[in-house]
Amino acid sequence: MEQAKQDFFVSAELLERMNAYWRAANYLSVGQIYLLDNPLLKEPLKLEHIKPRLLGHWGTTPGLNFIHVHLNRLINAHNLNMIFICGPGHGGPAMLANCWLEGTYSEYYPHISLNKEGMKALFRQFSFPGGVPSHVAPETPGSINEGGELGYALSHAYGAAFDNPYLIACCVIGDGEAETGPMAAAWHSNKFLNPARDGAVLPILHLNGYKIANPTILARMEEDELLQLFEGYGYRPYLVEGNEPEIVHPRMASILEQCLDEIKAIQHKARSGEALIRPHWPMIIMRTPKGWTGPKSVDGKKTEGFWRSHQVPLEKLAENPDHINLLEQWLKSYRPEELFDAQGAPLPELLELAPKGHLRMSDNPHANGGLLLRDLRLPDFRNYAVEVPAPGAVEAEATRVMGNFLRDVMKNNLDQQNFRIFGPDETASNRWSDIFEVTSRVWMEKILPEDTNLAQDGRVMEILSEHTCQGWIEGYLLTGRHGFFSCYEAFIHIVDSMFNQHAKWLKTCNRIPWRRPVASLNYLLTSHVWRQDHNGFSHQDPGFIDHVVNKKAEVIRVFLPPDANTLLAVTDHVLRSRNYVNVIVAGKQPEHQWLNMDAAMKHCEAGIGVWEWASNDRGEEPDVVMACAGDVPTLETLAAVDFLRRQLPDLKIRVLNVVNLMKLQPNSEHPNGLKDRDFDELFTTDKPIVFAYHGYPTLIHRLTYRRANHANLHVRGYKEEGTTSTPFDMVVMNDIDRYHLAADVIDRVPRLKNNAAYLKQMIRDKLIDHKHYIASHGEDMPEIQNWHWPYEAAEEVKKAQAIDISEAMEFGE
Amino acid sequence: MEQAKQDFFVSAELLERMNAYWRAANYLSVGQIYLLDNPLLKEPLKLEHIKPRLLGHWGTTPGLNFIHVHLNRLINAHNLNMIFICGPGHGGPAMLANCWLEGTYSEYYPHISLNKEGMKALFRQFSFPGGVPSHVAPETPGSINEGGELGYALSHAYGAAFDNPYLIACCVIGDGEAETGPMAAAWHSNKFLNPARDGAVLPILHLNGYKIANPTILARMEEDELLQLFEGYGYRPYLVEGNEPEIVHPRMASILEQCLDEIKAIQHKARSGEALIRPHWPMIIMRTPKGWTGPKSVDGKKTEGFWRSHQVPLEKLAENPDHINLLEQWLKSYRPEELFDAQGAPLPELLELAPKGHLRMSDNPHANGGLLLRDLRLPDFRNYAVEVPAPGAVEAEATRVMGNFLRDVMKNNLDQQNFRIFGPDETASNRWSDIFEVTSRVWMEKILPEDTNLAQDGRVMEILSEHTCQGWIEGYLLTGRHGFFSCYEAFIHIVDSMFNQHAKWLKTCNRIPWRRPVASLNYLLTSHVWRQDHNGFSHQDPGFIDHVVNKKAEVIRVFLPPDANTLLAVTDHVLRSRNYVNVIVAGKQPEHQWLNMDAAMKHCEAGIGVWEWASNDRGEEPDVVMACAGDVPTLETLAAVDFLRRQLPDLKIRVLNVVNLMKLQPNSEHPNGLKDRDFDELFTTDKPIVFAYHGYPTLIHRLTYRRANHANLHVRGYKEEGTTSTPFDMVVMNDIDRYHLAADVIDRVPRLKNNAAYLKQMIRDKLIDHKHYIASHGEDMPEIQNWHWPYEAAEEVKKAQAIDISEAMEFGE
């Protein structure tokens, strides 16, 4: 631990006023938790002034208020551009109190004015039906981190600081939150922050000692271990501790000056062109009592400085009139008459302490990132198209083609500094390596001569922590920039709960007029279930889509482009979209290409369509609809069509491909959903449908159970069978291979009854041959590996690649 | 960093033999990755001896082999009971090689004998169709951690060590895995391990420097920071580093002796009754090259000691005949002729180095925990029943009643030391506080006088890290003990991916005869979506059930007991079950109680049933079926029935309650599923069904879309609407309240057409009254708060509480 600079001095007068400001914020916080009326305590406090249901979290609140007033002083003294990331989301009362004191709240919500009526409304609305949540929610100006689910504050703060060289993201981390895995990993984000280019993060670890009902680990560790831990994480920790405000105030002020000095020194050095080594950024460990300034004890039980302060220290006021007196004493201990004038406005000498305009942390535009968002300069994605003279005529690695496009997205926006790529050590594995032609992975530790694609100014963010990647990209997007997250499909479940919280945040923002739209959170999920035959069962899980579609339809989109050109069109689309979570699932292995760019664009615009060139029902009712979604299911469907057409030339097959999964839902459920009329036209109302789907088959039923022809829908997909095997064996184990699909058709088309036995035997034989072959050769049969789509000459296909969907439908709005 | 004890000496002869053993393991590892035939290289290596598809991860393997031979020496020298948790799961070849060398593999899999034929079979099966996975999978004897998804090795190791005082769980952690959040949090597990009662965990952090394509953070940090980090975590780290085996061997041997000495000293002190303070357990940081002993460079590119060694260093052997020569040289560099006899068996002087019998890490029974599993001594759960003289006559907090039962489960098994409770700081919040009458939270840090329910020998495991809780309980169960994990419903998504991996593990174990069944992983999800009105939107998410049902039906069970007595019956059941993941969702707030214990038992046995006492269709066809699953949906359904019966006395309503959600699926899909005949009897084949479900409504459609009456099924549930509000407002926002349910019935029963307009207006008025009331009072209307079930006198109900399900069905086998 270092000593703070000794020469720093804040006048006693200023500290006194800051303490008054803190008292005001604490008063306003307690008021929010308890009071319906009598906000200034002008009359004796009675039960009817008190909320019937007491909700809120007092414990963390006074500490947050304390930090806030000190940051305000720092901002004023140095004209700082700072945001406040509030890890203890339960500290909503503190953030609301400060927002009100700074005048911001009344600007955003004029009915909560800066006077007695406004104060009463501020109190009443808190955790009250029709009011505001108890957390630092989207409704709270100045916030980008809700904090309801703990662990993400610090990665959000780093995400905000990247590419914002003049921003300081001050991040308060509760000692409860500090026990979570995502937080424990996020401390290492300092290895990825470049002081020449990025802003600063100032972590304040708030040790108030207790969780809901337990001490915290970090607060009980020996101090030397605590300091070693954070020095080991690469920080320079400063302790600020005490129970007595008159001691803690000057200490906090001088330590904050010290931290700012160090931040400026680091940045100055880095920006003056000196060779960089990763600096030891300062951080603060603030140890103050839980529920500081609240009741020392209640009913004889220790309360201040203990976990009993966590939520509402005084409860059941109707049954305990004595508690009403205690509450009144508690509120009066802040001496509101010295803080607010007769009209209830904070006194001018307090208001003076708040920064002005956008310097207020509650009104910093970085916390409403849509205000700062600039469109990406996107090259024309059509220029990256794979030449597809005929369906199946060439092979390509879809995500490599996408990476080629993203390279130029990156290049075009290098000067805007507003685009980054995120992923857990998988950018190259996922075939985006072309991006390394224009930028590198960011890396602030030592770089060795043999290292490749590592640089201090890289824009590819790789850490083997999906949590940290997710937190970074969320922070980056919410502060008005763009990004893409690529991940192995199975392991994106690691951030299921973070996705939940982000989707909830976006849904809520859609209902808040002053929240400007931000860039969508874009996922590429690759190394997917069907091509993890080499990595085995633990790497095979396509369930993230199921998880995603539980969230509000208005914020989620799911795309399953079947080849490279459709992937390009979808990529361009998602980079232009706002306020969504876009999930794209696409393979990285060399696969057959089906659509030229024109056809791909039309197909993606429609989101779903008949592939005329693969169908032979032209102008007639088909015997069967073969639908597919996902690259491997598309391949197997087409191979099944080939098999069936050879064996049963008269069979009329309609081939349908789905890119935008949400098209399957009724349009009453999802804005992208097809109208019943359009759905029925595609799927018929009475013909059997054999649907090969990328993920768990029940999802297709879930999306389509209201459709007319649902009773005839038969879905194949992943049924949780897998191990280390071959690609084709993976589909066979799950009955979604060409032969099983063909058998499904044979079973379902009544007029094939006569051929059934013969064909089914042929299929069984083929599957047995497959088993024998791979068991002896360890790879798939040549007839599988070398299968290609044999129909149509190049000329006629050019026309036939067009999509048959009578009315142009919107591309995933 | 401490110095190793100076006086320890391993003879040069022994070190030489250990090095030979290591060479043998490395040879066998390379052989598995590459060879189909010619296992002993008796003839020149040719392309046809080599697998056509090269799969596997060489990079981490030699390090694992190195550690293994050293642990074997330690086990032999001190007769240790040790298991090996292999974090780098990709190091499968190493674990398989050692298992074969120890003879275990041939005992479990006789066709993989300890000779040339066996060696060939060992090589061939690796990552080969019909063979074994490339990871340390359930198929691998000695394993309890697959390692395919990274981050869980250390919490598994601690889980294994709890209550196993004579076990040492040696845990190798890769430096990639060390970047993950779950791992970063798990280091703090040392604050919960009691050396007097528990075994030891010896972490070996293996810094091989690189991930797939990147350096690792921990390997590139300055050494002083690295050591500070782990000292800060509370360990005593010892460095073992080098490239040259002749230097690293003696260092590793002496450091291991040092660590064992320290472990023994800690345990001796703790067990001789000295007052405990949390000790600084030793750990090893081993820094050796990635792909150690492999090709130094390939095609002019650095390979050994670099990320290019991660998977298969020499690739495309068909195209590069030169690589075949390199491979042969590499294999021969281990001098196989000095390691194996002419028949291919390892030489006796090598075999001597392996421990014998259960001392072999590959055959330690703790890694096949079912062998050690003893049943819990369960008290009769009926003794904890809530007295329910009539449905709705009393209120109770269901999870508190459960906690009362669990207290005695804990008490009855204190001497067996095989039951623990896990959860993130929520045991008291979730109303299990009765457990604290017989045990405390375990806590090895300082305990202050004001602390409550903290003790060094506590059996309640609380850390604010769902990941660590999940890892601990998995490790505890897989080594043959019992546990229960309680969690806020919304935040259990944090461990979605860990659940996935555990469910996959269990499914695979079901197919391995020698894997003995282990106790089920039991979740209580409470503080659920409908009673998080006070904590707001971020705390409202019932989607874990959807996630769970994607996994194999044979390993997952979901229960939604509607009251305390049904919760007791379900709790007893899950504690007796084996090899499942049981998810129980139940509320903790005071709620109406419906069933006395007899009725509850019958209801839970059936899993689903008509509630005769709430229905008025006796003996007749109903007009409508009102189904419900979950405590709050049950309450709202019964209140809707009350409303409808008052307004429409002639309406015939059948009330159906679902406890075991899997009953809804066809029995072809889930072993608990109802036969169609039984389903149709309950739900009718043609009457409208209004189903109030706890979670996202689509799940009910997904489970029932094949049922005859599915077209008439209308489901209400959570539709992702919520904020901080009142309990009743939560159900209103999601249209699952009594009034919406009543309106749904009115809309669907044709003969109510005449009453519809009048009743719908009454319902609208009631909902408007509700809105107004809560907006002014901040709590629910008295008519909502005080509603109770008004029908039937106590006498006749006693009979009517019986469940009408003609044939007794199995209780969730």
Automatic annotation (TrEMBL), chains A, B:
EC numbers on record: 4.1.2.-
Cross-referenced InterPro entries: Phosphoketolase, THDP-binding, Transketo_C/PFOR_II, Xul5P/Fru6P_PKetolase, Xul5P/Fru6P_PKetolase_C, Xul5P/Fru6P_PKetolase_CS, Xul5P/Fru6P_PKetolase_N, Xul5P/Fru6P_PKetolase_ThDP_BS
Any Gene Ontology biological process: carbohydrate metabolic process
Span of domain Xylulose 5-phosphate/Fructose 6-phosphate phosphoketolase C-terminal: 588-789
Keyword set, alphabetical order: Lyase, Thiamine pyrophosphate
Boundaries of every Xylulose 5-phosphate/Fructose 6-phosphate phosphoketolase N-terminal domain copy: 11-371
Lyase keyword on record: yes
NCBIfam families in UniProt: PRK05261.1-1, PRK05261.1-2, PRK05261.1-4, PRK05261.1-6
PANTHER family to which the protein is assigned, alphabetical: PHOSPHOKETOLASE-RELATED (PTHR31273:SF0)
Entry similarity comment: Belongs to the XFP family.
Record's protein name: Probable phosphoketolase
Origin species: Candidatus Methylobacter favarea
